[in-house]
Amino acid sequence: MTEIPALIAAFTTLFIIIDPPGLAPVFIALTQGMSAQQRRAIGIRAFLVAAALMMVFLFLGEAVLGFIGISMDAFRIAGGILLFLTALDMLFQRRQARREDNAAEGQAEHHDDPSVFPLALPLIVGPGAITTVILLAGEAQSAADMGAIAAVIIVVLLIVLLAFLAAPAIERALGKTGLNIVTRLLGMLLAALAVQFVLDGLRGFGIGA
Question: What residues form the membrane-spanning segments (predicted)?
Answer without folding.
Answer: 6-30, 42-68, 74-92, 116-136, 148-169, 181-199
